[in-house]
Amino acid sequence: MAAVIKSVRGTRDILPPDTALWQFVEQAARDIFHRYDFQEIRTPIFEDTQLFARGVGEETDIVSKEMFTWEDRARAQSEKSQSLTLRPENTAGVVRAYIEHKMGDTGKLQKLYYIGPQFRRERPQKGRYRQFYQIGAEALGPPSAGSESPARDAEIISMLAHLLREVGIKEWTLQLNSVGCASDRARYNQALREALAGVKDEMCADCQRRAEINPLRVLDCKVPEDQPIIESLPKISEYLDDPCREHFNEVKKILNHVGIRYQVNERMVRGLDYYTRTTFEFTHGGLGAQSALLGGGRYDGLSEALGGPKAPGIGFALGLDRFVLALQAEETVGIPDLSPRVYIAPLGQGMNAEAAVIARDLRKQHIPTELGDETFRAKKSFEAAERGGAKYILFVGENEIASGQFALKELKTGEQIALKREEIALKLKTTT
RNA sequence: GUGGGUAUAGUUCAGUGGCAGAACGCCAGACUGUGGCUCUGGAUGUCGUGGGUUCGACCCCCACUACCCACCCCA
Fold first, then answer.
1. Which of A39, A78, A254, A351 is positioned for an S-S bond with A154, CB 3.0–4.6 A?
2. Distance between the two ends of chain A, CA-based, in angstroms?
3. Neighbouring C-alpha atoms within 13 Å toward the C-beta of A374
4. Is the Cβ atom of A125 within 7 Å of strand B at any atom?
5. What is the Cα–Cα distance from A262 to A23, expressed in whole angstroms?
6. Selection from A72-86, A89-103, A162-176, A274-288 with the highest mean pLDDT
7. How confident is the model at residue A361 (pLDDT cuts 50, 70, 90)?
8. Nearest to A115, CA basis, from A62, A41, A167
9. Is the ipTM of this complex over 0.95?
């Protein structure tokens, strides 16, 4: 017997009925995005490795150890091979497309969203996969289009709160921070390093390591004993320059005004280098250690880092795998039932053909219909209908053909009515 | 990349150094026109993979792989 081939580590199949849940989230997101005037962009699954090295940052974990990268072979001897990478995130690709198609030249603010798979070579665990799915949106453009305005930050955050409300996720918290501009962060990093030099010996092993490699990460430490020390460290807010501080204040003011609850979390640091000023994260309990449902922030310098024009922007990415987990944890209502609405039961010999005609007519009327096999046992039909999740069962047998009256029965209530053939579709359309 | 746990029927899981089990599900019959009940019968497995110990291994030992949880990282 041939060896069985299995899905590779960190990848998985999403099967029905879960796919219905995924479609529900995707549809809800598209719907909300359109209401906020975002339009879909689709960028390639793989890109030039340099895009991520320069965009996300050479030193980040994502780029330094989590990318699926390979050398594409050269087409001709005179040509060099090209290093390609499966996208580990989508913001860099969107900004690359923005630059490549000179979208900034319209003078318009570009409001774009995407839905698709991303790839990171991490060790899999709950809510974390090597091929995972993100829904994200980006608002970017020339400063003259208002792309730098704190109103954009607040709009994106409002839109997300709206989306969460729409799909029925209630147990979320919004963490908000400002990481300032590049120069602010450099000064802050320096200050942290100096402050840690004196105290790091008293901290956990992880923190001692972080203090050397990436002092910002110390702020993320959850070890209880370290907390007093962390509290005493300098705060990022003390290192924001005036424009950055004003920007952040304005974002908070708008959020207060529209009634969105948030916690300023000065210890929230993001792992992608391109973030500037506003950063945020929506978290959810019930996701285990991977509590970040969605996260995002501003990236005012990204376009220029990728060789493009000045194009400040803000965006977010939502982890669809985790989002679905959170939905399931909430036992949310409002998930569409994709089961057939009516099961057609051919009863008796030679009824398959009759049943097929009726099924065709119902399907033409957009009524989800499952067509059963003919049998002499009504019980079998009921069982098959039940299994398929149908709401109604319609018997098609000799008696019905002879009398022109078809018995339509609601499975749950047992209620039954007799209908003429042409009345069936109408009846099914008017009942929910 | 590191640590811990798990791997037995379609599913959830028991189990013992000596014949492979239960529940649910599935199939058939009782039962060829109105179910969800009941009764009877049935099928299902390289006991994750590869080695080792042993007269004998699903069980003990080693390695590997996968999954789960956590660290890390992030969405």
1. A254
2. 50
3. 14
4. yes
5. 29
6. A89-103
7. very high
8. A41
9. no
Tokens 């493009």 belong to A308
Q: What separation in angstroms does the CA of A60 have from each of A56, A186, A264, A294, A370? A: 7, 16, 24, 19, 52
Joined tokens for residue A291: 């509590």
* Euclidean distance between CA atoms A294 and A50, whole angstroms: 26
* Residue A334 pLDDT exceeds 60: no
Q: Which of residues 15-44 of A touch strand B (CB under 7 A)?
A: none
pTM (2 d.p.)? 0.90
State the Cα–Cα distance between residues A252 and A248, nearest whole angstrom: 6
The C1' atom of B3 and the CA atom of A125 lie apart, in whole Å, by 14
Nearest to A328 by CA among A9, A18, A11: A18
- How many CB atoms lie under 10 A from the CB of residue A39? 11
Euclidean distance between CA atoms A272 and A265, whole angstroms: 17
A97 touches strand B (CB under 7 A): no
Q: Is residue A317 within 8 Å of residue A134, measured between CB atoms?
A: yes
* Span CA (A1) to C1' (B56), Å: 28
Q: Which residues of A367-406 are buried (b: 16+ CB within 10 A; e: fewer)?
A: bbbbbbebbeeeeebbebbeeebbbbbbbbbeebeeeeeb
**Covered bases, chain B (protein CB within 7 Å):** 1-3, 26, 31-36, 46, 65-75
